[in-house]
Amino acid sequence: MHDPDLIRRAGAFHPWDAMAPAALSGILKRGPFQASAETGCGGSTIVLSQASALHTAFAIEDESRTITGLRNQSELRSEHVTFVEGQSKDTLPGYQFGTELDLVLLDGPHAYPLPQLEFAYLFPRVRLGGWLVIDDIQIPSVHELFRFLGKESSVALEEVIVRTAFFRRVSAPEHSPDGWLQQAMNRHTILRYSWRDRLRRLLGRK
């Protein structure tokens, strides 16, 4: 799928806080999708309403009245979009999708650890071969998640477009829910705090 006019119009919805047009194109070219979801809403919602048969946006109606503004956009295919209003930390845990997701976009609240929480609830819903897209990786709290995913075997980084990262899910997680030892980022403890334990093991002491 490729529609420069759609990208231009979607990028103009919130010009002061929009995904880069090239990143919106990156979403569109990976479609069409049967089902998708995002946290936050904006120009990406317009694009995903066109590219997805069933799109779910977890968003809030803030002082900018973003959801109302989107619903008034002629480019939004509203019949394809369900808005779940409220803070994602409250709405995600109990939400039932009923199907796997082809693409998930994380672009909701950026305060730590909310991007990580959104990932925890939404990533298990991404089908094998589907995409996890993370916007605003220039923000340290989001970049931490980006770095974590860069070491995980269950995803492969396809590309970074401006400040948006596109990961492809290539396998199921290989560890249990609390399998922190199997996570790549945890395979080596921080020496500053663990050198005594390492020394005891080397000396054969408990």
Overview of the molecule:
- The chain is elongated and about 70 Å long.
- 33% of the residues are buried.
- The mean pLDDT is 90.
- The N and C termini lie far apart (60 Å).
- It has one domain (4-202): Vaccinia Virus protein VP39 (Rossmann fold), CATH 3.40.50.150.
- Strands 3-2-1-4-5-7-6 form a seven-stranded mixed β-sheet.
- It has 206 residues and is of the alpha/beta class.
- The chain contains eight helices and seven strands.
Our Rg estimate from Cα atoms comes to 19 Å
Overall CATH architecture: 3-Layer(aba) Sandwich
> Helix/strand-derived class?
alpha/beta
Q: How many E-type strands?
A: 7
What is the ordering of alpha helices and beta strands?
HHEHEHEHEHEHEEH
| CA(first)-CA(last) distance | 60 Å
Q: What global shape is seen? A: elongated
Mean pLDDT score, rounded?
90
What name goes with the CATH superfamily? Vaccinia Virus protein VP39
Tell me about the largest β-sheet: 7 strands, mixed
| Beta fraction | 15-25%
Q: CATH topology, anyone?
A: Rossmann fold
Domains, number? 1
Level-1 CATH class name:
Alpha Beta
Q: How many helices?
A: 8
Tell me the helix content.
Answer: 25-40%
Going across the biggest sheet, name each strand in turn.
Answer: 3-2-1-4-5-7-6
Detail the poorly predicted runs. none
